[in-house]
């Protein structure tokens, strides 16, 4: 006897209708991957994405355990739920990968990014850039008579909003670190 329950009146009486329904909705996921800190590991991880045509929206990597020689790679990627599952499964099969965490589905997480923005301007535009920087809690880390370099940290959406407001005021250059993320709680 099958454990499958079919609603009365349902037209789905065939076993052929039991295949999972696939979604074509694009989702953004943040993955934290713990790997051995050795030459070539990052290239293998990146190769997995490029070889299958997956896009990386953000990538950060750094050694997190000097004695254990492990690094944490934080990847923000976009794809259908099926593509995200494939990415996680394929990452888990790479030999120097110890753990793969999908922070998007594992519960609440904290995501932060650092950005430097160079804004050129004089007069009222300069004053407005300083006012907006204060509102966004951005710090002026360099200043000349013709420009500022602002440092801002926060969620990627906050940095995007700050950059959008700085463009008409003279934004000429931006550098971003990429997302660093961690799950909340224990």
From TrEMBL:
Reaction catalysis annotation: 2 pyruvate + H(+) = (2S)-2-acetolactate + CO2
Keyword Transferase: yes
InterPro entries listed in its UniProt record: Acetalactate_synth_ssu, Acetolactate_synth/TF_NikR_C, Acetolactate_synth_ssu_C, ACT-like_dom_sf, ACT_dom, AHAS_ACT, AHAS_small-like_ACT
Matches recorded under PROSITE patterns: ACT
Keywords: Amino-acid biosynthesis, Branched-chain amino acid biosynthesis, Transferase
Pathway where this protein functions: Amino-acid biosynthesis; L-isoleucine biosynthesis; L-isoleucine from 2-oxobutanoate: step 1/4; Amino-acid biosynthesis; L-valine biosynthesis; L-valine from pyruvate: step 1/4
Enzyme class: transferase
Domain ACT: 30-105
EC numbers on record: 2.2.1.6
SUPFAM superfamilies listed in its UniProt record: ACT-like (SSF55021)
Single GO MF annotation: acetolactate synthase activity
Assembly and oligomerization: Dimer of large and small chains.
Family statement: Belongs to the acetolactate synthase small subunit family.
Function: Catalyzes the conversion of 2 pyruvate molecules into acetolactate in the first common step of the biosynthetic pathway of the branched-amino acids such as leucine, isoleucine, and valine.
Name of the featured protein: Acetolactate synthase small subunit
Source organism: Roseovarius ramblicola
Gene of this entry: ilvN
């Amino acid at each position: 006897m099958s454990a499958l329950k079919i609603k009365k009146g349902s037209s789905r009486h065939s076993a052929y209708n039991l295949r999972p329904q696939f979604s074509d909705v694009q989702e953004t996921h943040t993955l934290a991957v713990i790997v051995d800190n050795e030459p070539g590991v990052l290239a293998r991880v990146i190769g997995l994405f490029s070889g299958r045509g997956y896009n990386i929206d953000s990538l950060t990597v750094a050694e997190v355990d000097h004695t254990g020689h492990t690094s944490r790679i934080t990847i923000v990627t976009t794809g259908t739920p099926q593509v995200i599952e494939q990415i996680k499964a394929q990452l888990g099969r790479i030999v120097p990968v110890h753990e793969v965490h999908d922070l998007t589905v594992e519960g609440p997480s904290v995501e932060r990014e650092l950005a430097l923005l160079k804004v050129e301007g004089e007069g009222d535009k300069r004053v407005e850039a300083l006012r907006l920087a204060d509102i966004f809690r951005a710090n002026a880390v360099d200043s000349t008579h013709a420009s500022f370099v602002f440092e801002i940290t926060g969620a990627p959406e906050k940095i995007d909003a700050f950059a959008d407001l700085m463009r008409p005021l003279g934004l000429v250059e931006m550098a971003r670190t990429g997302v660093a993320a961690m799950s909340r709680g224990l």
